[in-house]
Structure prediction request, 649 residues.
Amino acid sequence: MPDGTNFTDVMADRQGCYHRKSDLSAFEHTCKGELTSIHRLTNLENLFRIRLLDPEDRKRFTFQPGQFVILELPGIGEAPFSISSPSSGHGDLELCIRRVGTLTNFLFRLERGTHVGIRGPFGTGFPMEQMHGENILLIAGGLGLAPLRSPIAYVQENRNLFRNVDIIYGAKHPSQLLFTYQYDMWRADDVNLHIIVEKDDPSWKGPVGMITKVLQEIFAHRDADYFQKTYAIVCGPSVMFKFVCAMLNERNIPMQKMFVSLERRMHCGMAKCCRCNIGSTYICLKGPVFDYWSVMNLKEAI
Amino acid sequence: MLFRVLRKEAVADLFGLLAESNRMVAPVQSGLDCLGSPLYAFKEVTDYYEISLTYTTTKIPAKKFFMPFRETMATFIVAGKDWTKKIDLNIDRPFVVFGMHACDINALNKLDKVLLGNFYPMPYYAAKRKNMFIVGIDCVPQPYCFCRSMGADTALHGFDIFLTDLGDHYFVEILSDAAFNFLRQLSVSEPAESDHALYVKTVSAKNNKFSVRVDTTDLTKILDMEFQSEVWEKWGKQCLSCGTCANVCPTCYCYGVDESVGLDLSRATKTKLLYSCNLIDFAEIAGGHNFRPESHSRLKYRYYHKHRGFVEAYEEALCVGCGRCGEACLAGITVPEVIASVRDQES
Ligand SMILES: Cc1cc2nc3c(=O)[nH]c(=O)nc-3n(C[C@H](O)[C@H](O)[C@H](O)COP(=O)(O)OP(=O)(O)OC[C@H]3O[C@@H](n4cnc5c(N)ncnc54)[C@H](O)[C@@H]3O)c2cc1C
Ligand code: SF4
Ligand code: SF4
Ligand code: FES
Prediction:
């Protein structure tokens, strides 16, 4: 108590765990990560492979598909990015990042071997275990494939636990398709891959149109029994998942079995800065992954 | 809770005792407004005679002492491809707030729920909050006060000592052992039956002095029903999106983070800056998409967070009814009027 000399020590020894009920000292803790490789995907997006350096951090860093980290570049800023790699990789993660502003442009100029700061993992993930034994629709629009790549990897690693698996991916233009080198691998793992682009070019042989068009075609060949036993994960811009979820809803997939990932401005990832708040729901804490029922109940979410 | 009574003159001794070894923050008269009425502010003081215990609401709450508008979170030393981060929690010497009104104490209690709650307690706040000693003081309701409607007119916890003026002595509520130990060094006495009666009478006299009320019955549902109402657009047209309301609000805590590099490029600083949800880019994301582009959608969000969302989460509003935002708003937007106009849509 106040007697001028001693005060509450809020900087208690760092404890091993860095999860929800974290101790105070973990709040600003940044894991140091090394950019081990920078993989050019398109002229706007790169895949950054990051290895956490501290053995303690590596041990502690576990995540679920759908969770995100906050990447920090000292003096430049920090921003949230979904983890785009398999959740089985402790301490080694991949972020698929689009060049859009200050931080991301700076990041694109960095060389391999540079150290970056990683905070997290934060937020909720897709409940993959709950989906065991069911069909899965993995639906992505544009950059939405980045967060979807982690559940895709989960399905690949546990292919025996799922029934029918479809990836439905829509992009603006063939040149904007992400992870093209992985498509054959996904197919080889008995995943149906459907890709559609809004605008084609001479080399494009696949379908052209909106993502809802492919869905319509796929659904025409599926019976009511299929939809009874189906989960859906939808990642992409909010206009896209609004239409897609409405379509899934029409087919009687329960809202609690459809999952989306919301994007909001974030400055902390820990339910403190209030920037991601909708009503009283912190998207960084209760999301970014929500089932569609929760989204419908959040005012102004879509 | 323990009760005591303290002679009026002994309050100076209490101040002196606490000031011996602590930083003191207290309300002082800081000037006069254009009508000649006194203005008050929380300031660091050393002398009891600087302070004004009969102050009316300060323009700016005491939050600058535990949630500064600008605060360094961490510094970096950058060397080539590597760097080191030094986290600075700004643990400061303990301090005493001498003379805090019930609304401001309740505001602290609300902030505690968010900032010290289970999930990721915030060390920057905790470092100061846990090192605070609070002496509460009763007040006289002003024409803009609606704390009673918000259930924030009395403080049940969150202070060490609370003083209520009973004429020639103070009725003292004691909550902490530290407070008890300080008071033991002064001439306090057990309250008599007549002191209890006088206290109850004083409090009920205060209750009769409120001139504005906010009807919060079913407010969360009404706000939900009126989410699309055009009253919001009316208020939105008035609002200047200046963010003053959040600045002066004792319960507003949102912030942004800013990083900057020193001139020699080898040092960087990460700074936390309090923000306001009325400012245009509050919910803007990369690529320029703004979730709340119009001023009315932001003003509405402020009310939804405070009077609906927070109630849903904590069963109380994130507003103590201090009236500061309404007093400070150049557009004359006040909480009681906004809420009344939304309720009116229902009738
Ligand atoms: C949960 C989540 C997951 C994301 N996953 C990815 C991903 O996998 N790949 C990807 O490329 N992008 C992703 N984003 C978007 C990414 O955060 C923005 O691209 C990034 O913030 C841009 O920063 P900038 O400094 O380059 O842009 P600027 O426009 O210069 O941003 C300036 C400031 O605004 C804030 N800001 C701007 N946009 C956003 C935003 N969308 N979300 C939060 N804060 C923002 C930043 O904190 C920054 O301080 C994700 C966003 C969220 C919320
Ligand atoms: S309500 Fe008033 S104080 Fe708040 S942002 Fe609008 S004009 Fe400024
Ligand atoms: S919203 Fe206005 S009345 Fe309510 S606590 Fe904040 S400043 Fe006071
Ligand atoms: S990102 Fe700060 S509260 Fe969610």
Summary: Chain A is about 25% helix and 25% strand.
